[in-house]
Design a protein that fits this description.
By secondary structure, the protein is mainly α. The chain is 69% helix and 0% strand. The chain has 2 domains: 276 residues, no CATH class; 45 residues.
């Protein structure tokens, strides 16, 4: 709901649809697989995200847009000014904390950290109308959240041996191949490996900075490509990237379908980010729900008997109520403005 733009009920609606799409199977039989084996593990996050935010954004972009003048900034001009540092200080701090908390959650998609940080900065900003038009906070916060989420993913991997995503799963496999089991004893048994991980993060960030700054001119030149050529190239990269994840043509079809869905959401002013969020949290949500119902012998009152659960439910209900009130208020304001406009027209003296 916080991720969605505006204060209406579009966020919870899209979020519910995401949860419905993510729940697949938990009891040994397929659900919502439609006799397609590739859907046995559920709908992947990659084809959905690429379809909604890649292909959907591409379809929603007018093909006749004017090509503006492409500027090639100097290296000195790329450094933030003192005012930009002032504007980005708090967004960087908030994004770092938010991204780290999301990164340590097993099974979380780190792409969500960027969306949550962007939505948070837009909510707390005194000038939310500047977002989408080059606001410094809209760049500093999400980028900090994305970087800190990637770093936070190493905490459960190194301390508990729990992967939070495909990257950490591959790293755990690499450690096991070398006979180094990740877990609580990793720091004591293999301190060089642990501190090597920590040092590699610093070296990686420095290398990323050293490579990106000199290549800014090359990246800017991509904007000179005419839209008629850039359009099919982006689609080609989307298809190839989605197919290479699982080598499944079903994922490509999912991406195409979600691209059309993303286009429709854009046209009807629905934010697609809650759909991805619902898809990610659906397995965790269902597993926790089943565990709670097993503990209570199928009694739903367990969610009202525990103080923490009751407090969280109350907060969720309050957020939904605030969204409903905001939607009704916006509709009432629209009708009142229309009535005032009509009244003003009637009072205008006739010539």
């Amino acid at each position: 709901m916080i991720v969605a733009e505006g204060g209406d009920l579009s966020g919870p609606i899209v979020d519910i649809e995401g949860v419905k799409g993510g729940v697949i199977h938990r009891r040994g039989h397929f659900r919502y697989s439609f006799n397609i084996p590739e859907l046995g593990d559920g709908i992947g996050i990659v084809p959905v995200a690429v379809g909604l935010f890649g292909l959907g954004e591409l379809l929603a972009t007018p093909s006749r847009q004017a090509q503006g003048e492409v500027m090639r900034p100097r290296l000195r001009e790329l450094l933030p000014t003192r005012e930009e540092w002032r504007q980005s200080g708090m967004p960087i701090a908030r994004g770092s904390v938010l991204g780290f908390l999301i990164g340590i959650i097993p099974g979380s998609a780190h792409i969500i950290s960027s969306f949550l940080s962007y939505a948070l900065e837009r909510r707390v900003s005194k000038h939310p109308e500047e977002f989408g038009k080059g606001a410094v906070a809209g760049v500093a916060g999400p980028e900090s959240a994305n970087n800190s989420a990637s770093t936070g993913a190493f905490v459960p991997m190194l301390a508990l041996g729990i992967p939070t995503g495909p990257v950490t799963a591959v790293l755990i496999a690499a450690l096991l191949i070398h006979g180094i089991p990740p877990g609580p004893t990793l720091i004591n048994d293999h301190p060089k490996v642990f501190w090597g991980f920590v040092a590699s993060m610093y070296v990686g960030n420095l290398m990323l900075l050293a490579l990106n700054l000199p290549l800014v001119g090359l990246f800017v030149n991509l904007l000179r490509i005419p839209y008629a050529y850039l359009y099919p190239l982006i689609i080609m990269f989307c298809v190839i990237g989605v197919y290479e994840v699982n080598h499944s043509i079903v994922d490509v079809w999912i991406m195409l379908i979600m691209g059309v869905v993303g286009y429709g959401l854009k046209k009807f002013n629905f934010d697609p980010a809650p759909l991805v969020l619902g898809l990610v949290i659906a397995p965790i949500f269902e597993m926790s729900l089943r565990q709670s119902l097993i503990m209570s012998d199928g009694t739903w009152l367990i969610f009202l008997q525990r103080p923490i659960a009751l407090a969280l439910l109350a907060i969720c209900a309050a957020l939904l109520l605030l969204s409903a009130i905001s939607a009704l208020t916006a509709r009432r304001d629209w009708r009142s403005r229309l009535a005032e406009a009509e009244t003003g027209e009637r009072r205008e003296p006739t010539a």
